[in-house]
What we know:
This protein is mainly α. The chain is built from ten helices and three strands; from the N terminus they run E-E-E-H-H-H-H-H-H-H-H-H-H.
Amino acid sequence: xxxxxxxxxxxxxxxxxxxxxxxxxxxxxxxxxxxxxxxxxxxxxxxxxxxxxxxxxxxxxxxxxxxxxxxxxxxxxxxxxxxxxxxxxxxxxxxxxxxxxxxxxxxxxxxxxxxxxxxxxxxxxxxxxxxxxxxxxxxxxxxxxxxxxxxxxxxxxxxxxxxxxxxxxxxxxxxxxxxxxxxxxxxxxxxxxxxxxxxxxxxxxxxxxxx
Length: 211
């Protein structure tokens, strides 16, 4: 197979378009161009064409992975799922299979752009700022596919439940009479929904001199 034309894509820096004589267009990175010694007019053997096609697919997956992480942080599991999800148009195939997605994730981890531990800490801090307790934060980490061995480290740097519960009560109740059993129950239920333990909730309410 002969390369009819090889030229920069013009849209993304470092990307090249390889036009083959059968009309196929391969989107490549500079590393693939150099590694295969590509140029306009080059003849590719069957083995070279197969290897180049596979490299082009891998480059496309890596490019999409970078695009996804640039949009917002993701866990490794979330990234792999997004790369392998089937398009809404069921006639189209997913971008890649799991093996290719895992390879792209490995590549990004090697570059330091994908880090479940760092992501877990960011999620925990975000949830804590919204008034969520440890239980709710763990639920969110589970939902986002963060490995369990990252959970404890993510929770370690957060302030204790006492401070967070007190801040919640002061913000949400705003002078409501805590001696009213209904007000106490609503406050306790709201804190429980946010993932705080009943022991911590009772302790906090007791400090407000509630019998």
